[in-house]
Amino acid sequence: MFRCTLLLLLALLTPLSMAQDQPTTEPRTGLVLSGGGARGLAHIGVLKQIEKLDIQLHAIAGTSMGAVIGGLYAAGYSADELEQIALEMDWPAALSDSPLREDIPFRRKQDDRDFLVKQRLSFKDGKLSFPLGILQGQNLGLALESLLVHTNDIDDFDRLPIPFRAVATDIATGDAVVFKSGHLPQAIRASIGLPGFFAPVMVDGRMLVDGVLSKNLPVDVAREMGVDRVIVVDIATPLKPADDMHTILDIMDQTTTLLTRNNTQEQLATLTDQDMLLQPELGEIAFSSFAEAEQAISAGEQSLLQSPELHAFAQPASQRQPGGILARKRPHRQPIIDEIRVVNSGKVADEVVRSMVRQQLGEPLNISHLAKDMGTIYGTDYFSQVNYEILHEDERNTLLIRTSGRETGTDYLRLGLNLVDDFEGGSQFTIGASFRVNGVNPLGAEWLTRLQIGEHQQFYSEFYQPLDYGSRYFVAPFIDAEARNIEVILDNDPVADYRQQRYGAGLNIGRQIANNGEVRLGLSRYGGKSEIRVGDPDQPTLKFDEAFYSLQIDRDTQDNVNFPRSGDAGRILWRQSEPDLGADERYQQLEVRFNKAFASGSHSLQLGAAAGRTYDEVDVAQNSFILGGLGEFSGFRQNGLAGQNYNLARVVYYRRLNASSMPLTIPVYLGGTLEYGRVYNKGDDALDTGYMGAGSLLLGMDTFLGPLFLGIGANQEGERALYMNLGQTF
Fold first, then answer.
1. Distance CA 54, CA 322 (A)
2. Residue 218: DSSP 8-state
3. Hey, is 222 helix, strand or coil?
4. Position 439 pLDDT exceeds 50
5. Exposed, middle or buried: residue 48 (CB in 10 Å: 0-12, 13-18, 19+)?
6. pLDDT, tens digit, for every residue of 658-674?
7. Helix (H, G, I), strand (E, B), or coil: what is residue 318?
């Protein structure tokens, strides 16, 4: 009887057991996303349709831009959120190393006003050194850190809402490196490091570059994640004929396409009838065409809807989940920061880096402040990379700031050129160079030496020594020698042209005001002479000794020194030449300048005012304000006015004629100025232009050498001039 009962139970349980052991009938689906720069934004369109059709994804593998889109999606972003990010992203900023100008230290802002060529030559141990890429990927890395901060406690990519893999290439061996664990932003950044354009990323002793070189379409990687079928999105750029390649970006695009063709074809050859291959019709969209993000996304949407395999992957309409497939949640709450730690391989002390981080302990992570702080640290020019990570240790959250000292060195040579021609024989040029030694000591001391030749000759050397880790207070001794032309005008007619020579030394003490300004108190002593160059040869040589107390207050919040769209810039300079310090005579001078920028769309406007006063008797050939030129009493030639007093108000308007989403494009502007002011000296028969109106029309370009202006100016005094001005006015 017992045996019969047992057999009966076994017979009843066996079908149930067999049913439980049978695998699910729904196949596991993987998504494979290829590289391709801006063309890769088509992946977002594919994901939008995947959500609408309720296609279940069990794994994602991506390379380069495919790793960016795939990694963000796997980490919990929806397709609509990714679309918003792509359309609102400032791509020129993300694809550059330069932090926002408002975030960099004030001292670095002043470099923009002094020297022409933006690119610097780096020196290490006295030898010229070159970087491993045009860009270090600083801003791109920070963008990824910010977007993925909620994944900092996940080091196993299988624990993401969707398991994920990113593919990079070991540049030393050519092998593919598949990231399945680690720091997710770093893995994605390594995958997107196009050689030559982005510097390699060092991970565990390996130098990693873009994954497109080894595995542009990682189908086999997705299969190794246990999927039964794959949706493959191939956005490879078609080869261009020679006639269609016009820029370095076209050449880089073509080179990448050639390098990836073979490994892409190898992966495509492994596809079966169960898989889906999508090749969006992207037309002429290039890897650099981020301005066409909307078109790329739309092409991705259409590619999935037009696929003949769609019915095998999509859920029936009656079974689709409301709102799509995303039942997962991406945490938005920022972690509470209990500790801040610095890992620093630069030349300055850890405390210098720490002083620039404003995050408060015991408070939630402030992403917006942290992004600005990273820009400030990077803007010191001491580091090739600055990034952060949140460590979760024993229920404590540590904000880890990592800085990598510049492999190319922190000593910089910058070259400059200023060329002015009024097309009437009045040509002027100045060639300049500066050499800056950074990180002289752990506090971040600098030694700057500047040399100029041409119309304005100068040798200037300053040792800048911060007095605290925050670089708030400083001392700056200097030596200075210069020679320049000063034109003396009586009754609005030139009567003499002097060559003035001055040489001296001094000491400034001061305080920085955040990143926006600086206050300096100074003592200085000068000697010099002014010799007649053009005019009555019987005019005697003027010799003088000067010694100054000085106060200088500077402010600069402009977003661009040449063509600002926001912010302001101003200076107040007061000085008194004092006989008690060794001067020949006592006199005071005061100069105030201020400009404010506004913008809307492609239109920009600047409102500016300036005034200078000399309060006591001093010879014009000894000390005066040098004025004249495009936008500064237009119609007069550059530096054609020397006056002891002036007033000037002006409006500058310009409109950008071209638009681009890439940093290598040269902006072109068309605009003009309206000015109203007066230049005058004291005493009888002296210069007095009276109040006069002036204006100019100009064409400007912000080239890699600096600003180039072509313009025509005129004023109510009947003066007319054509201008070509290349570079900053030293």
1. 9
2. -
3. helix
4. yes
5. buried
6. 876 555 578 899 999 99
7. helix
CB crowding 448-477: b at 16 or more within 10 Å, else e: bebebebbbbbebbbbbbbeebebeebebe
Residue 720 buriedness (CB in 10 A; 0-12 / 13-18 / 19+): middle
Contact indicator for 109, 522 with CB cutoff of 8 Å: no
Contacts of 472-476 with CB under 8 Å at 24 or more apart are 472/511, 472/512, 473/509, 473/510, 473/511, 473/512, 474/509, 474/510, 474/511, 474/512, 475/507, 475/508, 475/509, 476/507, 476/508, 476/509, 476/510, 476/520
**Which amino acid, residue 274?**
Q
Contact (Cβ atoms closer than 8 angstroms) between residue 71 and residue 41 = no
Q: What is the mean pLDDT of the chain?
A: 84
CA–CA distance, 548 with 625 (Å, rounded to integer): 17
Structural tokens at position 58? 């069990």
Alpha helices by DSSP H, listed for 192-324, are 212-215, 219-223, 248-268, 293-305, 310-313
Q: Which amino acid, one-letter code, is at 351?
A: E
Hey, which bits of 287-359 come out as E strands? 339-344
Q: What is the pLDDT of residues 229-248, one digit of tens each?
A: 999 999 876 666 777 777 66
Q: For residues 730 and 708, what is the distance between their CA atoms, to the nearest angstrom? A: 15
Strand partners, 647: 611, 678
| Nearest 10 degrees: Cα torsion 344, 350, 352, 354 | 90
